[in-house]
Amino acid sequence: MTSADNAHARDAAAPATGFYGRRKGKPLRALQNQHLQEDLPRLQIDLATLSDQALPALFALPVAEVRLEIGFGGGEHLLAEAARHPGIGYIGAEAFVNGVAKATAGIVEAGLTNVRLYGDDVVPLLDRLPAGSLARIDLLYPDPWPKRRHWKRRFVRPDNIDRFARLLMPGGHFRFATDVEDYAAWTLRHLLADARFHWTARVADDWRQPWAGWPGTRYEAKARREGRIPGYYEFQRI
Known about the structure:
Elements: H1 3-12, H2 30-38, H3 40-43, E1 66-70, H4 76-84, E2 89-93, H5 97-110, E3 115-118, H6 122-128, E4 134-140, H7 158-167, E5 168-178, H8 181-192, E6 197-199, H9 205-208, H10 218-225, E7 231-237
Parallel strand pairs: 1-2, 1-4, 2-3, 4-5
Antiparallel strand pairs: 5-7, 6-7
C-alpha cells in the first residue's frame, strides 16, 4: 500500500462526527438566552420529523432552492446571504451554542423567514436530508486541525465528501474558504481526485478573490489582520 493509500485509509477510518471542541463559550446574555428559549424551537430542524418531503416545505414562504452552511460561527455570512436572497431557503448548522444564540437573535431581529437552524453535530443532519436536495453547501473557515495526528478530524475527508456528493443536485456547488494553505492543498487534493466534482477556477484570481456579495466574517477579518491570506474554492457537482 502506498503512502497515499495509507492516508486515504486513515481518513476513511475517521469517526462519523463533524464536530470536535467546545460546545459553549461565555455565558449567554439575557436577551440571547431569551431568543434561544422562545424563538429557536420554531427555527430548529427536528431530525425526528425530518422526512423525504421536499426541503422547501421547511420554510414559511416558498423558496426556489435550499442551501446549507456548515459551521456558521456567529452567522454573519448565513444571515447576509438570507437577507440578500429572500427567495432561497438557508439551513445553518452550528454545534457551538453561542453561535446558535447569536444567529437566532439575528434572524428574529431581521425578520428573516427563509432560515432554519440545526444546533448540533451536522453529520446526523447530512445523513437525514434527502438526496439531491441542496443547491449549495458552504464550509467556511473550518478548524484546520494543523497537527498531523488530528488530520482525521478535518471535516473535508472521504466520508463527508460522499455526503456532499449525495446531497448536492447535479450542477450544485460546494464552496470552501480557508486561510490555512495546508488545508487548502488538502481539500484540493481530495476534491480534484473525485470524479463527481469539478473545480470551477480558471485563473488564480478565481480563488484569491471573495465570491460575489461576500460579507466577510469576524474570523476572516482576524486572519487578515494577522497576515493570513484567505482562499475561496468552489467545486461543482457533476
